[in-house]
Specification:
The structure is a homodimer. The first copy, chain A, has about 575 residues and is of the alpha/beta class. Helix content of chain A is about 20%, strand content about 35%. In chain A, the strands form 10 sheets. In chain A, strands 32-31-33-38-34-37-35-36 form an 8-stranded mixed sheet. In chain A, strands 7-4-6-5-9-8 form a 6-stranded mixed sheet, with no helix packed on it. The first copy, chain A, has a 6-stranded mixed sheet with strand order 16-13-17-21-20-18, with helices on both faces. The termini of chain A are far apart.
């Protein structure tokens, strides 16, 4: 037990931290097709380059009409409209919905000019070019606004993300077909032992097969590494030193197994000294897995694992896996189920089993909470941003707030968001945060949320930053965002997400700034009022119109740092 | 919600069962190198073809001596022996340990002829060709017997096992370098929708990127399948029918996304009818994921998933993943942590954190128990057979029996052992069980255990079958196993694991039958007594010597079936 060679056994966590602190980051990246990107780690923040959807679209089959035309419509007093055309999915509408007219429209099809509401087929009766509408609906009903799912400029995947199938789908939705990823870490592997033979050799008396090379290289391949197999080395300090040198030349990290028994381990230590290495630790308070030896030679690490197969496997998971993740700047935890406490009452799906998609937040190790994602199954950002889900069983009306549920982690990999930002979309705030914290190795996740949900998330200590439109007393920062009027005519239709009237225009209220921009560029609107920082993303300019106040609330995690970063933006963006 | 097209929504589990019952098994296998075998599913039971270790070996550095020479040795009365040589790891010993002599020996090296015990260096004082031994030790001390880890003929990995790194290591230890695995399932994938464009196309107004193909094919690749991407299909029954036919021709299973909205789903149903399909179900009580449509055409399945991205992903996991696993005869659950109750007091590792390796048994869904594996870290079978581990924290003396602990599942994949067999190794019983149940799709796992542990495991309802040497009252079957005497001389050394004396021989008691066979073939022993069924594996014959009684205890799981199979063996093997 207390052999003199292990001068001071250290704790497993200390050993892991020493490795993570000393490992060198991979600095070379390569661009791969999205087809081949699963399991690779993203080398840069990836932002959406298009809006999803890129146009206002119908969320169900029905009739696209002008809401003013159906005010007061009911079973008894239906409104009669002339049907001018039919917008099919994937087609550009031809013609305009003028007062007294309608277009038949399919789910997912583009809303035609002049329409601001889609009446579901079940509230309509169409015949001979005429439709009777039996229900009055407010403006915006059954329309998914441009950018309602993903907004241009939004961060989709932060650098350091291990790409899983859901990311692949979400990125392809934004038109991204090639991704810059870190190159695969090259890990040199060899086994130490006079008694080892290869699987291609005839077993002779006293010899045993070198199995660790196979186990370790399989484990490395599953982690997305390229194992460089150096083979077997006898128990001889010179041979070991040569292998370590070869490994340092060819690999980013050198892993050996064996040579850790009392008699042998000074051989390895001597070999390391000969190679100019510094021993970082030797011996961990772990069973199996005590005789782990880690050294630094130049800027690279050598990790010597025990030769016993179970010890080698357990030690690999404890030390080599975190080293590889740290080399890639990736903070992924392999875990399948977590326990969370419901932040609010969660309603069931009627007779159907409800799968509630959530983003998972780690408060402290093993202490998880969550941010619910929009339940709309057409939402791509829900897929992209969901770390997992919990189930509300069929037939159950609701699960009460405070109830504990088990959430399933998608693909068994949980990736920590170091900073969770919710609320209003501001490309300037998001951009400065993601780019500045990127250099610190922090991962920022953004989830768009309504004012109420954003405040709730902040109060529940889930969101680290909430951005709210308007002035909230006691907020940490108040930033003014410039609004611009973009107009091709001094009269006509003005589209805006703000409740603003401008003389000379008839205002159409839309759900997103992106919808206003879509309507302007598509010729549906003659003028729009949008934040300048958003218009800029589309290369649009206009005249100053006014300001919108954004209140920024900042939680305790990295608080001072975040305040410092955002102060740099100034109080006007 | 209650659209007329979904005539009867069925429960998620019913949908899964219908798919598993109807899916066709992959029947073609291929042989792959062990380097490329991770993630593939084994197509046949794999048995050990060699013993591990294949020779008696020292478990520590010391002196190999004849135990009778050191009886009574102590600090005060050390025994003086002449040192004849030094056995290094990987070398065949030269010379024989005769009375009054010893060999220096390294950890892992082969025990020389004449020795039956290894005295650790710390109880010895060697100088000038002489060693003083300060401690008396019983025969067999510090020797790992041939076959003590893995026995020739033992089942290593049952057919249907998803190969993980630990299997790769364990199989390579037995000299297995090529493995027969099921060929990768070929899954045809296409998307339905007029509005879909490829990532290589310029986005035009009203169109959206086809993202499901990317998500689904990524998910399929992670499952070890070959996705056959058929591309996009407009909302047109003839086009859909053509795609389904192409998919059936080229794939083992056809998966589509989209086309499930009310207006479209009758298009798909019509297309399936045209292709000669039978609808197995249409609509599941799940949210998202209601409009799942599964049909059988000939012997192949078509699974239509919803087009919404989150629904497609959730439905994939619920229906396509189990289908693929069933196609491969694989019963693997992706799970990371389980809760188990300790079956006995578990002692800690002193100041070290103890990782206790265990085989996990599923009693009922979500109800797990375990079988502890030998803690010896040099054990390869421990690595091969461990499904996971639990931790006894450093500094803790023990965890009490009945205490609940969280066990970590290795690689996040738990593979059910349908039948767990423990106790004495009998190749005849194991062989008939594994081969007969193989055809039924049951996976048999064997763990060698001492008499006491085997009985305990059976009584704790962990083991389904226990085989115990000797007659146990109330056992379910009593089988007589023939013993044979194999001799090259009528006098000299007789090695046996049985406590048997034969006139003319001096008996050496060894720990395994495999050690007796090693000693005979290596010339260490002149005669051995071993079970005939084991000798046969080595092509050895001898004269009938007697019988050993094996008591077989059979638990409730598959009881009648197992009794039927084993009765077929007769009462003598």
């Amino acid at each position: 037990m207390g052999s003199p060679i292990f001068k001071r056994l250290i704790a497993v966590e200390d050993a892991q931290n020493i490795i993570i602190r000393n490992v060198e980051r991979i600095r070379d990246s390569e661009t791969v097709s999205i087809d081949e990107a699963v399991g690779r780690v993203v080398a840069e923040n990836i932002y959406a380059t298009i809006d999803v959807p890129s146009f206002d679209r119908a969320t169900l089959d029905g009739f696209a009409v002008w809401s003013a035309d159906i005010i007061g419509a009911s079973e008894e007093t239906p409104k009669r409209l002339r049907v001018l055309g039919y917008v099919k999915t994937g087609r550009v509408p031809r013609g305009v919905v003028r007062p007294g007219t309608a277009f038949r429209i399919d789910t997912g099809a583009m809303i035609p000019k002049g329409a601001d509401v889609v009446v579901p087929v079940e509230y309509c009766d169409a015949n001979n070019g005429v439709v009777f509408v039996f229900r009055s609906l407010p403006s915006g009903s059954n329309i998914q606004w441009a950018g309602g799912d993903i907004m241009r400029g939004e961060i989709l995947v932060p650098a350091g993300t291990l790409l899983l199938p859901r990311h692949i789908g979400g990125l392809s939705a934004s038109g991204i077909s090639r991704i810059r990823v870190w190159r695969r870490p090259r890990i040199a592997v060899f086994s130490i032992g006079d008694e080892l033979i290869g699987l291609d050799q005839e077993p002779s008396a006293g010899m045993i097969y070198d199995i660790n090379t196979y186990t370790i290289s399989s484990l490395l391949r599953l982690l997305g590494c390229t194992p460089i197999i150096l083979g077997r080395t006898p128990d001889d300090p010179e041979a070991i030193a040569r292998r370590i040198e070869e490994g340092l030349r060819r690999g980013d990290l050198v892993v050996s197994t064996g040579g850790s028994s009392v008699g042998q381990s000074d051989l390895v230590v001597r070999s390391l000294m000969r190679a100019g290495g510094t021993i970082l630790f030797h011996g961990v308070m772990s069973k199996p897995g005590k005789p782990v030896l880690v050294a630094r030679i130049g800027r690279k690490l050598y990790i010597g694992l025990p030769g016993n197969p179970t010890s080698a496997m357990v030690s690999f998971m404890l030390y080599v896996k975190p080293a590889v993740m740290a080399m890639l700047g990736c903070d992924a935890e392999h875990i399948d189920n977590i326990t969370i406490r419901l932040r609010r009452r969660e309603y069931g799906g009627g007779g159907r089993r409800l799968y509630r998609m959530i983003a998972i937040k780690i408060r402290r190790p093993s202490d998880y909470t969550y941010e619910p994602l929009p339940p709309a199954s057409e939402s791509i950002s829900t897929m992209l941003k969901s770390d997992g889900y919990f189930v509300v069983p069929e037939g159950l009306e609701f699960l009460e707030k405070g109830h504990t549920v088990i959430a399933r982690v998608l693909d068994g990999v949980l990736q920590h968001a170091d900073i969770l930002l919710v609320g209003e979309f501001s490309p300037s705030i998001l951009g400065v945060l993601t780019e500045t914290t990127h250099d610190m190795g922090l991962h920022v996740r953004y989830i768009r949320k309504s004012r109420e949900s954003a405040l709730q998330s902040y109060e529940d200590h889930v969101a680290d930053i909430a951005i709210i439109s308007g002035h909230i007393g006691g907020c940490d920062l108040l930033i003014r965002r410039r609004l611009i009027l973009i107009a091709r005519k001094r009269e006509g239709i003005l589209a805006s997400a703000y409740n603003i009237s401008v003389r000379g225009y008839r205002t159409i209220r839309v759900g997103t700034h992106q919808s206003a921009i879509f309507r302007y560029t598509q010729g549906y609107a003659d003028a729009i009022i949008v934040p300048e920082e958003i218009a800029r993303l589309y290369g649009l300019r206009g005249e100053r119109f006014g300001f919108e106040e954004l209140s920024v609330l900042i939680g305790n995690r990295h608080r001072e740092h975040i305040i410092g970063i955002l102060r740099g933006l100034g109080d006007e963006i």
